[in-house]
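Per your request, structure below.
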């Protein structure tokens, strides 16, 4: 074994520099060092929506530790979330507040979609990742012309309605958040089978087991950016874009021409109204749609 190590020229070790641990791997003349100093910043206390996380339980603390380490080191994803939050949190926060939903739920949108109109492999769509069935349950319009899952204001309102319903069912915001991943029926079944009454005592599928801890990790990091090394100058954050609203209760046969008539192009129209799914709009009877037209930044 010693000869093999000598032949390969591999030396590994842990070096203590001040209060920073560095894992050093040397192969020939190449050296790589990984700074893990941020690991020491696991918070001593944390809560979700005012409900304290029991970090004195070993597996609970380690599950949070895992998500903190992952998200501190997922630099690209965390940075893009911070940039987008500057634009989109001001839209999400007042809708949560109006509905009596704790502000912490905005971080659920971060872990669901990185604050974008994403589409998952399972078919969930939008900032809040509504599936077709759930969108139907909450009376969201989804057809070839309109998909309200891509309308941030509407989707946030519908997410609030879900959270309120789940909170009424479980009596816990933490379980309400977990059920957004697992489903209310799935969480209820496991609570009954395991004869427990809270999220942190549940043994549940890994995705749901990690879900609230991912929210907690992003909350902690995004609320304490300097502590975790994410210092972004103000001018690098994505700024809110001023728009005007056009109320439409009539069919639009050609959205390309409609865009030109508004002094923009079709790309800009779609970027600001991703809920418009095609090149025309057929209006559902009795309904009015608000189309956002930017007044700057195009």
């Amino acid at each position: 074994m010693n000869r093999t190590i000598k032949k390969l020229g591999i030396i590994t070790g842990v070096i203590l520099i001040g209060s920073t641990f560095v894992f050093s791997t040397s192969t020939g003349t190449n050296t790589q060092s990984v700074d893990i100093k941020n690991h020491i910043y696991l918070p001593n206390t944390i809560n979700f929506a005012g409900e304290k996380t029991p970090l004195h339980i070993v597996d609970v603390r380690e599950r949070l530790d895992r998500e903190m380490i992952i998200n501190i080191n997922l630099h690209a994803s965390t940075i893009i979330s911070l940039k987008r939050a500057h634009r989109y949190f001001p839209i999400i926060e007042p809708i949560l507040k109006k509905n009596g939903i704790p502000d912490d739920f905005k971080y659920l949108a971060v872990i669901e979609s990185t604050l974008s109109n994403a589409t998952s492999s399972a078919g969930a769509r939008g900032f809040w990742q509504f599936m077709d069935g759930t969108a139907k349950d909450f009376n969201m319009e989804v057809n070839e012309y309109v998909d309200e899952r891509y309308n941030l204001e509407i989707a946030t309102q519908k997410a609030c309605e879900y959270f309120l319903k789940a909170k009424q069912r479980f009596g816990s915001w933490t379980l309400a958040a977990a059920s957004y991943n697992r489903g209310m029926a799935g969480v209820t079944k496991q609570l009954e089978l395991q004869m427990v009454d809270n999220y942190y005592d549940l043994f549940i599928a890994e995705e749901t087991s990690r879900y609230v801890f991912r929210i907690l990790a992003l909350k902690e990091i995004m609320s304490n950016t300097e502590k975790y090394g994410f210092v972004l100058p103000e001018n690098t954050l994505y700024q809110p874009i001023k728009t005007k609203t056009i109320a439409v209760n009539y069919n639009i046969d050609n959205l390309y021409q409609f865009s030109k008539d508004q002094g923009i192009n079709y790309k800009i129209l779609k970027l600001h109204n991703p809920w418009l799914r095609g090149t025309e709009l057929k209006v559902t009877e009795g309904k009015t749609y608000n189309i956002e037209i930017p007044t700057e930044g195009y």
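The radius of gyration is 23 Å.

Regards,
D.
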